[in-house]
Design brief:
Distance between the termini: 57 Å
Radius of gyration: 33 Å
Low-confidence stretches: none
Mean pLDDT: 93
Largest sheet: 5 strands, mixed
Strand order of the largest sheet: 6-5-4-7-8
Length: 721
């Protein structure tokens, strides 16, 4: 079996997916097709696998490709040592786990000088073999057997030194044994406990890690967020940790695979036992403890990254306010509030600084500015950042609105400003608004993210949005890869307007990338709006393959071809043309006409390259072309009477917005500058295994205050159903 076929079999088995769909998906990924394109436009080939399935296949494929590459290196190394056997080669080729592969290679891996290599150089390996073979009876003369190995010139001037050297050789050999390592790894994983303690420096301090000052939990059951907390505590030198288990049982396990005579009648049993104990204490336990902890942390990292990605996607596809005139406010006390207005297309119109709070208290002036801006631009929404002075600024502006009557009465909405400061100081923001202060750029970003969260948030590193747990501690390479895939998924789920999307948004469209995105915007600036998707072929760097990957995710409202404003791929336009022709109507008459669409039998249009899965998608697009798939816009209104932690009381019921979802619960903004935590057990009346089953970032919820810890600034909440 070729390595390619072997990988297909492994992926199929690992994921429990149909072999044909896996094989075709692997082939398409190899041809450079993107995940969004495959999942959306190649359903017949994949057997209707969804995007999650395809990303899983891609991840497994990369893992096994790396595994096969590592095998080649190992095979070459063992061949060069002239130690390869047919059995060993087969064992390596059929191995499907990186950890087990390294176990197999360990005895052949070139080593630096160790106690064992020194003992071997002194000629003690035959004595080690003698001890391991366990053929000597108790009545034989041990001293006579050891005597030939005593050689003062080699540093072995006593029998004890000879035995110690032989023990070192056996201990290293046992620690390199793949079977023993595998058994002990499983034993520690199944029976070990992770114990954490406070360091001496932190023992008398109250910190957020105090629950881990004397903590002990089974490795099998400890959840990822606790592992991450312990790792961070150790990094901050507040905690120390170790894996504890019954050492005698672990040693007995090694003995069971080492001792041949169950009656322990071998002459060298004491030395063999010591070798086993040395192997465990000096080699196996220290290395496996770290390896197992890192493996558990790797799993915890993956869980944390998954949580971060889910939250980021929900934030990215949050309902847009749409094409409305919006006032954006970046609140502040001493430095004032930065107020901007953007038009219906997100273009910056005007900026002012107001100082309605202490210490300036220029309330009347601030009120006049707010009123003038609302009246001049017919402001429909006012977006206020949720940072410092947010609550006070919201109260001030609401008071202004109560005192005045406008042609359009604007609504005040508190918007998460997470990442706004990162964007405002970025080269991208500097290039767009070179003459504006960073705080003004931040206010523009706050307004724009209310108008269209996706279009604005793609400009910010997803890691800076702040909707995960321990995102700065996890594997940053894996985090970036998954978050990039998350943004790509969100952008292609929504689609992009070819004539208004920014370079940043276009760069995430399937197949495009940053360079082609820049070229599209440059072409648009020079030649005006795109009238037809075929014009994309004029873009530098955009060839047939890129067009195939991106065309279905781009939209042209009001273009020459009405289908260009739909999610139908141009390669399938001929199918719709045939449908319209059969109904004797124009395509424009067919699109959105439920009565006509009901007359179409998709089965009549099945052909070699177009199956029912694709045709059903086409029918859905015909019914509602260009419709934004995101939810309808809604917001939570905070209580005017609750502004700080001191205003909270137990059993209060308040409105809130979910700002972050973790594996252990959800954080909710209730308007007091400190998010409260709803533990997973308080999220639902029924049992749930994940908070994501019932809440998402951006959801509005009603919560009850259970407990307030003002010292640590902790608020415990419960969802009210």
């Amino acid at each position: 079996m070729s390595s390619g076929d072997r990988i297909i079999d492994w992926i199929t088995s690992d994921l429990g997916l149909p072999e044909g769909g896996v094989r075709n998906t692997v082939m398409m990924l190899g041809d450079g097709d993107t995940v969004p394109f495959i999942s959306r436009y190649r359903k017949e080939k994949t057997g209707n696998l969804d995007e999650v399935n395809i990303r899983d296949i891609n991840d497994k494929l990369q893992y096994y490709i790396e595994l096969e590459t590592r095998k080649e290196t190992i095979l070459n190394s063992i061949e060069e040592q002239k130690k390869m056997t047919p059995e060993l080669k087969k064992l390596i080729e059929e191995c499907k786990e990186k950890t087990k592969l390294e176990d197999i290679y360990l005895p052949y891996k070139p080593k630096r000088q160790t106690k064992a290599t020194i003992a071997k150089a002194a000629g003690l390996e035959p004595l080690a073999v003698e001890i391991l073979e366990q053929t000597r009876g108790m009545k034989e003369n041990k001293a006579e057997i050891i005597k030939p190995f005593i050689d003062p010139e080699k540093g072995i001037d006593t029998a004890q030194k000879a035995l110690t050297g032989a023990i070192d050789i056996i201990a290293e050999q046992l620690s390199d044994n793949a079977l023993i390592r595998g058994l002990l790894r499983n034993f520690i994983s199944a029976n070990g406990n992770l114990r954490s303690k406070a360091t001496k420096a932190a023992a008398n301090l109250k910190t957020k890690y105090d629950m881990y000052y004397d903590y002990n939990e089974s490795l099998k059951t400890i959840p990822g967020h606790r592992l991450l907390a312990i790792r961070r505590g150790a990094k901050e030198e507040v905690l120390s940790w170790k894996i504890v288990l019954e050492d005698d049982q672990a040693i007995d396990l090694i003995l069971s695979k080492t001792v041949k005579n169950k009656g322990n009648m071998s002459l060298f049993y004491p030395e063999l036992f010591q070798a086993v104990q040395t192997a465990y204490e000096r080699h196996l336990y220290p290395s496996l403890q770290v390896e197992i902890f890192l493996a558990k942390m790797d799993d915890a990292d993956k869980d944390a990254i998954d949580v971060f990605a889910k939250n980021a996607k929900n934030l990215l596809i949050a309902p847009p306010a749409g094409h409305k005139v919006i006032m954006g406010v970046d609140p502040g006390f001493r430095t004032g509030c930065k107020v901007v207005v953007i038009d219906t297309n997100g273009n910056f119109k005007e900026y002012h600084a107001i100082f309605p709070h202490e210490p300036a208290l220029r309330v009347a002036e601030a009120e006049d500015i707010i009123v003038d801006l609302i009246e001049e631009y017919y402001v429909e929404l006012i977006a206020i950042g949720n940072g410092t002075a947010s609550k006070e600024t919201t109260a001030f502006i609401n008071n202004v609105l109560k005192k005045h009557t406008f042609k359009i009465n604007p609504k005040v909405i508190v918007v998460s400003e997470a990442g706004a400061s990162v964007y405002s100081a970025s080269p991208l923001a500097t290039a767009e608004f070179p003459n504006l202060d960073v705080t003004v750029r931040g206010a523009i970003s706050i307004a724009r993210r209310l108008q269209d969260p996706l279009a604005e948030l793609v400009k910010i590193d997803p890691k800076s949005i702040g909707v995960g747990q321990y995102q700065h501690d996890v594997n940053q390479i894996h985090l970036k890869k998954q978050l990039d895939g998350t943004v790509e998924s969100a952008v292609n789920f929504v689609g992009a307007n070819l004539n208004s999307a920014s370079t940043e948004l276009l760069s995430y469209v399937s197949g495009i990338g940053k360079t082609v995105a820049k070229n599209i915007v440059a072409y648009r600036t020079k030649n005006g709006s795109f009238k037809d998707k075929k014009e994309l072929m004029k873009i530098s760097g955009l060839g047939d393959k890129t067009f195939e990957q991106c065309a279905g995710f781009l939209r042209i409202p009001g273009g020459l071809n009405p289908l260009d404003n739909s999610g139908v791929h141009p390669e399938r336009y001929t199918v719709i043309e045939k449908m319209a022709s059969d109904l004797d109507v124009k395509i424009e008459e067919l699109i959105g006409n439920e009565a006509l669409i009901k007359k179409i039998d998709p089965k009549q249009y099945v052909c070699e390259n177009v199956g029912l899965l694709t045709l059903n998608d086409i029918m859905q697009e015909l019914k509602k072309p260009g419709v934004d798939p995101r939810k309808d816009f809604s917001t939570a209104e905070f209580s005017d009477d609750v502004n700080t932690l001191d205003d909270l009381q137990e059993n209060m019921v308040l409105n809130g917005t979910v700002t972050n979802v973790t594996n252990f619960g959800a954080f909710v903004d209730i308007g007091v500058h400190q998010d409260g935590l709803v533990h997973i057990s308080k999220l639902s009346n029924k049992f749930i295994t994940s908070p994501h089953e019932v809440v998402s970032v951006g959801d509005t919820v009603k919560v009850k205050v259970l407990k307030i810890d003002t010292e640590l600034k902790r608020i415990s909440l419960e969802v009210v159903r």
